[in-house]
Amino acid sequence: MAAATAIVAVMYLCLCFSLAEMAPAIPYAGGAYAFARTAFGPWAGFFTGVAEFIEFVLTPAVIVVGIGSYVGAAVHIALGIDLPAPVWWLVFYAAFVGINLGGVEPTFRMAVVLTLLALGVLVVSWVGAAFHFSWDLALNIEPEPGNSRWLPMGWFGVAQALPFAIWFYLAIEQLPLASEEARSPRRDMPKALVGGVVALIAISVLTLVLNSGIGPGAAGVGKSREPLLLAFESIFGSGLGISVLALVAIVGLVASFHAIIYAYSRRLHSLSRAGYFPGWLSLTHSRTRTPYPALIAGAVIGFGVAMVIEFGHQWFGERAPVGAVLLNMAVFGAVIAYIMQMVSFVRLRRRYPWLHRPYRSLLGSAGAIVAAIIACVTLIFLVANNEHRAGIYGCAIFFAIALLYFGLVGRKRLAGSLEESFALRLEEEERP
To answer: First CA to last CA across the chain, in angstroms?
Structure first.
């Protein structure tokens, strides 16, 4: 996992430097789809938009499954009550979609508060773990024959860990979706992207290493559905107080859940506004200006997919781990979107060298190519993983249906959105 995290950190560093150049140059809420549309045309824009739709709609579903595990554990310890996990999923979806419906200002304020609280929780866990850390515990996974304790499952194990390492960084690329709400996107977006990914790299290393080096060690953490709660139990002991710690431990999940609900609503809204998705998804509330149909639709889809995996195990042959299946589905959409964004970056540099770029990536086209290669490798091993392939098949079927829809209907309804107008203007300027 450490090796996979290092590889993925390189990918995200290259990705964010590239996005930091494209976001202020094309400062529209379409984000990844706007970059691909400008570089390659409507089909590429739609393909990238669908990939990000899968990522952003299913990522909150992954997170809410984790939240349900933590809250369920806390309630069981404190009250001895066991509620079905989907009850907690529904409660948190309803609560945080409701907050997002209140408008972008309270949404962002809540995001800042939750993020600071989540960082505080992590700092407490790091300090506590530092006093109990042991390399023997960090390396207590029994190696397979022929492998070492440092690489107990060999390099194939590293490859299999790539999708889970991505989870440390997934959705930082949502920042360009806020371009139209930012006061100065050309100045602030590069700072946010580069500063954000550097912070995440530091946080991921500290969390992974310290959390794995305390009881029960890496072997136990790898099997736990509540790894941070496991760390708190090791540091502070178990008992009634651990239920409070379980609730504290979910702050980071709640922060991500809240922010990515915003992200999927903007993704659906921008794709609908441009004519790629049905028009009713671009409607906004008359007072708060929030895209309420997109907020509700994304929640219904994410919750519905989680329910299918939870109760449809008779179709999969065995009970599938809901969180892991959803995670692989979200990562599937993400890495496809990353590949398209990096290819678009290279294309934009070559096709429109005269485009005004307030910020230029320090890594240039080489950085984008490195990120695309790592994303391609991750995609290959994601599909090659037998355990959660059913979810990938579902995503592939959705892609096929979406492309069929666009070919027959969507491409004939493209609207004059900001992203589309910008792309068309560049195309006109390029003509002799």
So the answer is: 52
CA distances to 34, 149, 205, 256, 315 from 168, in Å: 25, 23, 10, 11, 31
Dihedral in degrees, nearest 10, Cα atoms 63, 65, 69, 72: 110
413, amino acid identity:
R
Nearest in space to 62 (alpha carbons), one of 90, 89, 84: 89
The strand ranges marked E within 263-419 are: none
User: How many angstroms from the chain centroid is the CA of residue 286?
Assistant: 30
Amino acid at 2: A
Nearest 5°: the CA angle 400, 310, 398 is 5
DSSP state of 287: T
Sign of CA dihedral 62, 68, 71, 77: negative
Tokens representing 332 are 């599937």
pLDDT single digits (tens) 194-250: 899 999 999 999 999 999 999 888 988 888 877 887 888 888 776 656 666 666 778
Q: Are 29 and 270 in contact (CB under 8 A)?
A: yes
Question: What tokens were used for 348?
Answer: 């934009």
Q: Which has the closest alpha carbon to 370: 14, 36, 18, 39?
A: 14
Residue 375 to residues 75, 97, 133, 332, 382, Cα–Cα distance (Å):
39, 31, 33, 10, 10
pLDDT band at 254 (very low <50, low <70, confident <90, very high): confident
Q: How far apart are CA 160 and CA 276, in angstroms?
A: 34
Helix-then-strand count for the chain, H and E? 18, 0
pLDDT tens track for 21-43: 998 888 876 778 889 988 998 89
What residue type is 380 in one-letter code? I
CA–CA distance, 49 with 371 (Å, rounded to integer): 19
Phi and psi at residue 310, to the nearest 5°: -65, -45
Q: Could you tell me if 189 and 182 are in contact, meaning their C-beta atoms sit under 8 angstroms apart?
A: yes
Residues 210, 130 contacting (CB under 8 angstroms)? yes
- Give the C-alpha separation, 21 to 266, whole Å: 21
Q: Give the span between the Cα atoms of 347 and 22, in whole angstroms.
A: 11
Specify the residue for token string 């960084």. Answer: 169
Q: How many residues does the chain have?
A: 432
C-beta atoms surrounding 286 within 10 Å: 6
Separation of alpha carbons 193 and 12, rounded Å: 10
